[in-house]
Recover the amino acids of this structure.
RNA sequence: GCCGGAGUAGCUCAGUGGUAGAGCAACGCUCUCGUAAAGCGUAGGUCGGCGGUUCAAAUCCGCUCUCCGGCUCCA
């Protein structure tokens, strides 16, 4: 091969030998005209780059279009620049912070000085963006020295960019310029602004410069853009649909929970009868799983003396997010922010032998945390919640197997509900103040959870700085209806609390040893899990969870006796049902049951009465046929016992 | 806690300074009905709260509470 040629490997694994210094655009053209037309950027050995930059060496490449994440990333990054240009034209005094692409769109943090941006400004900015886009100008990459970069931002008096540049190495600083707007930027960008056909500025928010509360708060404008107007309409429609799953709306509507800020308090959910049924079913499910795995259940009080939390370290570390202490008889008590310290005291109540380990103490433990007012959110972020908590006290030799067991249990939970979770290993960072315990313990614990995760075949990402103060975690995250991620289940390894509480066991060598603790909560909290569950199923719960499993609908009053007969038979088998004896037409009763998302409706009239059958409707599917009462009972008992998801239910009669 | 938005009947919403409205739900009566809305009627409000401007405030102004979307935080 001549030195003038390089080999490019395409995503399908095929190689392409091609002249050196070829640009991404030329590569795309060499593949197909269609691809060249759609191309937004190119990924070269994992780095996303502009299409018009030459490729100088052998590389794995991928041409990015709107259909790839890298392509959309490029598109939205360029959109953020266009947003900034529009703002600069309309508000010349605005100073720009950072403006990255995000999962669904982009944002730009802007210092508007004294101007307070309102939603009506947003539509003006949107129009300006589209106007600028139509000029179809290119994004030009300009390499600058650090000195030039600093000089530029001194001229325009932008302290934010100056701060950013000061942290950069000379020689790797680039600007991008489109039209009249130049921005410090690593790139890459799309070929020209004209590709951006539709834009929607979605949200206006305050955002601290560099995420620091002590810094100035800038105005963050969120937006999303598309290469076709139709895609924007589709996106907005999907957003509307997603909102219908919102547990804050569905929860109260379905009688699951309510919040009474006036007299009970914000963030203190009240579980309504339907929600309580659901929650008790969830607890029963977890208890059964735990009994099979050798857990022992305990119950501990909602409060404890403040000293308990001084020993555990919760009090000094998390003073700000606790309810104020309760003073009684010269003693201070705290509403418990965690259950662990209570459990540790139970552990310490007896002399423990290595033969007793692992000791697995479980509790549906209520905790109280004073979350900031702006942070409260339906059932997913509250000030009082109940963790499906457990602490496993074990020897070092047992640790890895126990971690794997808890991961296994957590997986069972998510499989049961058909949930897809993202897994995150939450490690510590360099900020020693945030964490307790010896660094060597931390390294050890991080290694152990990683090994256990690998051996269980988990796909995870690692997040530094997300650990709890006593140890690293495996966090199981799930998305809500509008794509926000919430931590649900967690498995944590803890070497710190055994030291703080001086926990010991007697080993085979008759010496005292320190146990290790695993903290775990597969649901996380009953509240958050229920909130997520509502959104996951959009209120159409599997039969075993549905608070109201069926409605019995007599055709007319004449069939009420037979309806009550069926109701009695079903109730004897533990079915949760209601008889709709209102003087409404069948259609109306069906409609009401459908709206209440009741899984089954039994229509009972003359035919059914004389045959001893029930005519069955399934929520969202309609009439599924006629069954003998006994066959129907068998069918639903199988459905409940198998914890079948709505999508798994066989509807053939 | 911070930034922006919003609070009118149980729900969805109309009402821009002059007597608080609609649909659905609820309740009553009539109808006794075959697979997604029967008909008629009744009741329901401190227009989130407090204060101010005005002859007059749901409407204008100030403060405050709560909720929504973000930020920060998150044991």
């Amino acid at each position: 091969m001549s030195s003038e040629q390089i080999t490019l490997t395409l995503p399908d694994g095929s190689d392409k030998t091609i002249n050196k210094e070829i640009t991404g655009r030329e590569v795309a053209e060499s593949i197909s005209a269609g691809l060249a037309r759609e191309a937004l950027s190119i990924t070269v050995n994992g780095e996303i780059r502009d299409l018009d930059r030459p490729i100088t060496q052998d590389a794995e490449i991928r041409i990015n279009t709107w259909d790839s994440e890298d392509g959309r990333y490029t598109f939205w990054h360029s959109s953020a620049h266009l947003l900034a240009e529009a703002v600069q034209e309309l508000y010349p005094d605005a100073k720009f912070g950072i403006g990255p692409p995000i999962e669904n769109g982009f944002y730009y943090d802007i210092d508007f000085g004294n101007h307070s941006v309102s939603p009506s400004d947003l539509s003006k900015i949107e129009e300006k963006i589209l106007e600028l886009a139509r000029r179809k100008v290119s994004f030009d990459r300009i390499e600058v020295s650090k000195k030039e970069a600093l000089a530029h931002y001194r001229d325009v008096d932008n302290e934010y960019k100056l701060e950013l540049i000061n942290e950069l190495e000379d020689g790797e600083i680039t600007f991008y310029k489109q039209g009249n707007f130049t921005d410090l930027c690593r790139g890459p960008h799309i070929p020209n602004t004209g590709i951006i056909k539709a834009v929607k500025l979605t949200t206006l928010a305050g955002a601290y410069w560099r995420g620091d509360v002590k810094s100035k708060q800038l105005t963050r404008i969120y937006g999303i853009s598309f290469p076709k107007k139709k895609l924007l309409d589709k996106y907005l429609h999907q957003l509307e649909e997603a909102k219908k799953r919102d547990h804050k709306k569905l929860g109260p509507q379905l009688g699951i929970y309510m919040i009474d800020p006036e007299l009970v308090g914000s963030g203190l959910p009240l579980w309504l009868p339907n929600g309580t049924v659901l929650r008790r079913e969830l607890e029963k499910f977890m208890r059964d799983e735990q009994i099979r795995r050798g857990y022992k259940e305990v119950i501990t009080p909602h409060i404890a003396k403040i000293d308990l939390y001084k020993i555990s370290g919760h009090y000094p570390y998390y003073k700000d997010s606790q309810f104020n202490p309760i003073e009684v008889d010269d003693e201070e008590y705290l509403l418990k922010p965690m259950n662990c310290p209570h459990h540790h005291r139970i552990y310490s109540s007896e002399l423990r032998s290595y033969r007793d380990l692992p000791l697995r103490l479980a509790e549906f433990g209520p905790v109280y945390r004073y979350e900031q007012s702006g942070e409260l959110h339906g059932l997913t972020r509250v000030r009082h919640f109940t963790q499906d908590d457990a602490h496993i006290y074990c020897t070092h030799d047992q640790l890895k197997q126990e971690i794997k067991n808890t991961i296994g249990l957590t997986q069972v939970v998510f499989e049961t509900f058909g949930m897809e979770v993202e897994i995150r290993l939450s490690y510590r960072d360099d900020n020693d103040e945030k964490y307790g315990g010896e660094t060597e313990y931390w390294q050890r614990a991080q290694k152990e959870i990683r090994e256990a995760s690998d051996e269980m075949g988990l796909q995870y990402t690692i997040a530094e700085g997300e650990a709890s103060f006593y140890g690293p975690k495996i966090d199981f995250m799930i998305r809500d209806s509008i794509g926000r991620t919430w931590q649900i289940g967690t498995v944590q390894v803890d070497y710190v609390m055994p030291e703080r509480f001086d926990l010991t066991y007697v080993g085979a060598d008759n010496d005292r040893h320190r146990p290790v603790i695993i903290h775990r909560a597969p649901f996380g909290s009953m509240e958050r899990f229920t909130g997520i569950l509502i959104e996951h199923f959009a209120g159409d719960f599997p039969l075993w969870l549905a608070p109201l499993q069926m409605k019995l609908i007599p055709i007319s009053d004449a069939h009420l006796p037979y309806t009550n007969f069926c109701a009695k038979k079903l109730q004897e088998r533990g079915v949760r049902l209601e008889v709709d004896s209102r003087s409404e037409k069948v259609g109306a009763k069906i409609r009401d049951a459908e709206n209440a998302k009741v899984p089954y409706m039994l229509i009972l009239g003359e035919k059914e009465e004389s045959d001893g059958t029930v005519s069955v409707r399934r929520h969202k599917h309609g009439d599924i046929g006629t069954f003998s009462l006994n066959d129907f009972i068998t069918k639903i008992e199988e459905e409940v016992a198998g914890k079948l998801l709505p999508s798994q239910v066989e509807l053939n009669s």
User: Anything to note?
Assistant: Residues 69-90 of chain A form the longest helix (22 residues). Chain A has a mean pLDDT of 93. The domain at 264-300+340-535 of chain A is CATH 3.30.930.10 (BirA Bifunctional Protein; domain 2). The longest strand of chain A covers residues 198-208.
